[in-house]
Design brief:
Elements: E1 35-38, E2 41-45, E3 62-66, E4 69-72, H1 78-88, H2 93-97, E5 99-103, E6 120-121, E7 124-131, H3 158-168, H4 175-183, E8 210-211, E9 215-216, E10 246-252, E11 274-277, E12 297-299, E13 308-310, E14 313-315
Parallel strand pairs: 10-13
Antiparallel strand pairs: 1-4, 2-3, 4-14, 5-7, 6-7, 8-9, 10-11, 11-12
Length: 316
């Protein structure tokens, strides 16, 4: 893994595969989502941004056309994911494997050297593999969801997101749909609200403030995740499309694009990693700016971290 690939999200090392079979089916009304109906259409996907990594294939901007669809206003919350688990007994990849990646400052100092899976990721030393960390124990043993049921569910692998989707009768958005929705109707702007990160000195998203990775001042109100419905919504009514948590998309990741891009493009047929979009509370300009609307990254579908969740979509 290098800073030009998936620097923002550590990949799980090769090991025994978790059971990622389908979850029990349910009706599409199993979970209530706040749907945003979008008309689709054509837009310029990507950006010519000097802060982009060339290997991300973010540029050049390319015309993309998508059909009408609906997308949730927020990422799936802990309360929603808990309802899914209670109904099905589903165990996430992290729970099956017995560990997940947690950002080092989220783990109490007294516990940072006591985990069975305490090894760090070379080049990404701020990540710790913590035994028993999972969606309902975000920082590992001793942590819980108290006061965070309205926060996005994290430690969610792509397989876990897909299991929820099958049960709830929804799907993950394609990468093209995700960016169309995240832009909120603005054309080629850096962020869903415009080109300035803090217009008028106002925090618009949950990202890192301070010296990364050793001090997060939390000037935006949050050191780690924020409630899913935080900060102003974009022009379409979506919350937290930049920062807070990375969000899985349906597509496999590719560092190239067909010319022209077919309508309703869904990515390559096969790859090693799935697309993640939007950045997280760990994003900081000193390291990378993948919290921009046109930025992209990826991770292996069996990887889970304390800053990755998902948002759902459905046909219009």
């Amino acid at each position: 893994m290098s800073p030009t690939s998936a620097c923002c999200a550590p990949a799980a090392p090769a090991g025994p595969a978790a059971n990622t079979g389908p979850a029990p089916a349910a009706s599409a009304q199993a979970i209530a989502h706040d749907w945003i109906e979008l008309p689709g259409g054509s837009y310029l996907m990507g950006n010519n941004d000097p802060e982009a990594f060339p290997a991300d294939a973010e540029s050049p901007p390319r015309p993309v056309e998508i059909s009408p669809f609906a997308i949730a206003a927020t990422a799936v919350t802990n309360a929603q994911y808990e309802a899914f688990v209670r109904a099905t007994g589903y165990r996430t990849v992290a729970e099956q494997l017995g560990w997940s990646f947690v950002f080092h400052l989220q783990v109490p100092a007294s516990k940072r050297k006591k985990s069975k899976f305490q090894s760090k990721v070379v080049g990404l030393e701020w990540w710790l593999g913590v035994a028993d960390a999972s969606w309902h124990k975000p920082e590992g043993p001793g942590s819980n969801l108290e006061g965070r049921l309205d926060h996005p569910a994290v430690h969610i692998a792509w397989f876990d997101a897909m299991a929820y989707c099958r049960w709830a009768g929804v799907r993950l958005p394609t990468e093209a749909e995700w960016e169309f929705a995240a832009r909120g109707g603005l054309e080629q702007k850096k962020f869903p609200w415009g080109d300035e990160l803090m217009p008028g000195g106002r925090h618009m998203c949950n990202i890192w403030q301070g010296k990364f990775p050793h001090e997060n001042l939390g000037d935006d109100g949050y050191r780690w995740t924020a409630p899913a419905r935080s900060f102003p919504a974009n022009g379409y009514g979506l919350y937290n499309c930049c920062g807070n948590v990375w969000e899985w998309c349906a597509d496999w990741f590719a560092a190239s694009w067909p010319q022209p891009v077919p309508k309703d493009y869904r990515g390559p047929l096969q790859s090693e990693r799935r697309v993640i979009r939007g950045g997280s509370f760990l994003c900081h300009r000193s390291y990378c700016t993948r919290y921009r609307a046109g930025a992209r990254s990826s991770n292996t579908p069996d990887s889970s971290t304390s800053h990755c969740g998902f948002r759902v979509a459905r046909a219009a």
